Amino acid sequence: MSRASLKAGVGAALAVTAADRLIGALTGMRRVPLIVGYHRVVDTLASEPPTATPAMSVSVRTFAQQLDWIGRRYRFVTLDEIGARLLSGERWTEPVAAVTFDDGYRDVYHYALPVLTRRGIPATMFVITDAIGTSSLLTHDRLHLLLARDWPSACRALARIGVLPARGKAARGPFAMMRFLLGTRSQREIAHVIQMLEHLLGPADAAPESLLPLAWDMVRALDRAGITIGSHTHTHPVLTNEDHAHVVEELVTSRAAIEREIGAPVRHFAYPDGGFDTAVVSAVAAAGYGFAYTTCRHRDPDHPELTIPRRFLWENSCLDARGRFSPSVMGCLTNGVYDLAVSCRRRHRVDAERLERHEAAARAIG
User: Fold this and answer.
1) pTM value?
2) What is the pLDDT of residues 219-258, one digit of tens each?
3) Burial of 19 (0-12, 13-18, 19+ CB in 10 A)
């Protein structure tokens, strides 16, 4: 049985008995805001290049179906409203939801904004400031393109430069390999891997229009349209793989650039790849962010407002075995049913010495 069939079967069975909502109540999902995350919104998946990173794109049609499903069950609110309630400790009297986007792809401007505007739905865009206005692929897209273009040759190249992981992980394909490298290597090491892959396999192709980042005039237009602009760092490193000085520089530089361009304070931050630990959270607090968002359910007890969970959606996340939008799968997903089968494997706590280094670097930079 395929994974899609299993998800659809579980979803249908639980939806009939309303057990998905019961599980949501027991896990606490029904008592907290639903914050959904997206990366890219495209016209159709058929128009996507074959080497585009999977699990990051949703078609306009599916995006609208997901929003309509949420809108019938939740009231859409801004992250500022969620943050204010979180700080005050006031409980929600009705289910609420918020929409967010990571990375700052320009297809969100072209395809998602009209859908949001027609429905009057607020949203937040977390941008990578160093990428804005460029014609370059983002690092993870560039890495995946190189791996997916010729996977057997890429494996041989990775083995040659000594970064091929255990055989089981390598066998899963380009996407799993990309996630492995991004999750275990620093930004400098990733750049070296890409450089060596391009030396051995040939340079990455030019970025197609669909993968380009926003320009600053687009960011300002989103801001004028009521889309909250948040930070997703300056160059998008996974912060738990970086030293304290680099982490603080990423946080401070990004926030300053956005505030300069839109003329408004930046209060919201999203961790690249959801990677955070106590030292990184401390640096985010010192950099002046009021709220920060993750990709797992773990909360920092000292900074719950800086470890707010989100749930990411894409084209196939809520489809049945026949490739159709499934309300029952969507219900199980938003109620945390599928979370019972998986757990976060990240290490979120660090030793006191690393924490102090992060705090000292933050104080020194100001």
Assistant:
1) 0.88
2) 999 999 999 999 999 999 999 999 999 999 999 999 999 9
3) middle
Matching residue, tokens 């950099």: 287
Measured N-to-C along each axis, helices 327-334 and 3-17 cross at an angle, to the nearest 10 degrees, of 80
Dist. CA 175–CA 179, nearest whole Å = 6
Residue pair 308/87 in contact (Cβ under 8 Å)? The answer is no
Rounded to whole angstroms, the Cα distance separating 133 from 257 reads 13
Of the candidates 27, 37, 20, 49, the one whose C-alpha atom is nearest the C-alpha of residue 313 is 37
Structure tokens at 303: 């900074």
DSSP-derived pairing of the beta strands 57-59 and 75-76: unpaired
350 touches 275 (CB < 8 A) = no
Nearest CA among 279, 266, 54 for reference residue 147: 54
CA-to-CA distance for 232 and 125, rounded, in angstroms? Answer: 9
3-134+212-365, what's its fold? Answer: TIM Barrel (3.20.20)
Quote the distance between the C-alpha of residue 24 and its chain's center.
Answer: 22
What tens digit of pLDDT does each residue of 150-204 get? 999 998 889 888 887 766 555 578 999 999 899 889 999 999 999 999 998 898 8
